[in-house]
Amino acid sequence: MIPSDQQNHLDLRTASVAWRLTRTLSPRPQVRAASGDQVNAYPTQVPVAGPAPAGPWAMYLTDAQRRYRYIGLDLDAHDGGAAQAERDATAIATVLTQSGIAHVVCESGPSGGRHVWIGLAETAEAQLVRHLAHSLQGLARSLDPTPLLNPATGCLRPPGAPHRHGGASRVITGDLTTLTQPTTTPSQLVDLASRLNDELG
């Protein structure tokens, strides 16, 4: 565990420090680690109580009961490029702020993709998260909803986790205590989805 007064001052460029944060955050006793011979695949289960993986790792968004503890939004830089991912992250951050939902925005790696993280004070049902993911797609075309559509296997590289092309997920805006001491409730997610549906049609 990382003391609460140190959580927002971590140098996540160090893999060992990033791994300590993952241990603190992880809803399950294991994460998924990348395989060297597979591109962007995480086939190996690694216990968080053990040493850090040699390469990238991804954290489950749900607990053992398949209820969401985190909303992890993956904004890919593949099709629209880094500029599109950045615009979408800004748009999402704006609506989250307007909705009173605390969040953290990370640059996922050297490609310029973005990850937007929301910690939940109470677990959320998969159906609600799926609905929210589809609503957010209308706001952010670079959003890959896959981690939010499969409560059994959905995962995302957490802040500080290494990227397969070098570098690591880097916090751009937000406070890590947003994730370690979350305040967002499922009812806020319901309100957010309703707002997006009303505004985007």
Care to give the gist of this entry?
By secondary structure, the protein is α+β, with helices and mostly antiparallel strands. 32% of the residues lie in helices and 21% in strands. The protein has helices at residues 15-25, 81-98, 126-137, 146-149, 177-180, 186-200; strands spanning 30-33, 44-47, 57-60, 68-75, 104-107, 114-124, 143-144, 155-156, 170-173.
Task: Name some characteristics of this structure.
five-stranded antiparallel beta sheet; alpha+beta; 201 residues; four-stranded antiparallel beta sheet; DNA primase, PRIM domain; single chain; 6 helices
List the helices and strands and how they pair.
Elements: H1 15-25, E1 30-33, E2 44-47, E3 57-60, E4 68-75, H2 81-98, E5 104-107, E6 114-124, H3 126-137, E7 143-144, H4 146-149, E8 155-156, E9 170-173, H5 177-180, H6 186-200
Antiparallel strand pairs: 1-2, 1-3, 3-8, 4-6, 4-7, 5-6, 5-9
